[in-house]
Amino acid sequence: MLPPGWTTQHGNSRTKIGGTMKKWIAGLVAVTAVFGVGLADRAIAAPLNYDESIDGELPSFPLSQLTFDVGVNTVSGSGKFDDSGSDVDEFRFTLPTGSRLTSATFAFETTLSGPTTLFGIGYALTRDLQQVTPDVIIDLLGSSPVSLVSLPLEDNGSILTFFNFGQHKSGDGGTWDYTVSFTVEAAAVPVPEPATLSILAAGLLGLALRRRSS
């Protein structure tokens, strides 16, 4: 039989070690949960991909309001400007809270109705009826894509408008298919790196073993 008191003392030590291990595991689980939430937030980002041929024509009035997410959001459709009239798409959109728009490009493919020497459209971004990016004139006879935004545009909770300020042609004109790509970056949120978690786990384990040895 073991000496009196040994079992009790050993039992107390086991209780202390068990409590320490439980705290260590709980701490590691909590930190891992934070790390997991950060990854989940990145994983559930769902950039918009709007296509007129699938999602419906973008009306000239009232303008469609789209909701962008972190990543590359795209809006695709078609336009025309010829002797029969014009159809140039515009729309409104919002950015995720705290995010910023870092780039926007306009890619196109033009089909002419006949001889044409000049053919272009103009776009800019507005916010609360105030223009926030310079005018960009897109030469539909030129190279594609064309950059629309050169500087980051921070979200401030307002609605942005992809605004057409005019079009011009010399000749018959024609039609174009387009895709506008908007790159949105999320606000910086500190997330523990795997190496940080490893160091923390090693530290907690070391603390538990130290208490056990004492």
Protein described:
This protein has 214 residues and is α+β, with helices and mostly antiparallel strands. The protein is 29% helix and 41% strand. The strands form two sheets. Strands 1, 3, 4, 6, 10, 11 and 13 form a seven-stranded mixed β-sheet that branches. Strands 2, 5, 7, 8, 9 and 12 form a six-stranded mixed β-sheet that branches. Helix 1 runs antiparallel to helix 3 (194-213). The longest helix is centred in the N-terminal third of the chain and has 38 residues, at 6-43. The chain is elongated. The chain starts with 5 loop residues before the first helix and ends with a helix. The model is unreliable at 5-10, 12-17 and 31-42 (pLDDT under 50).
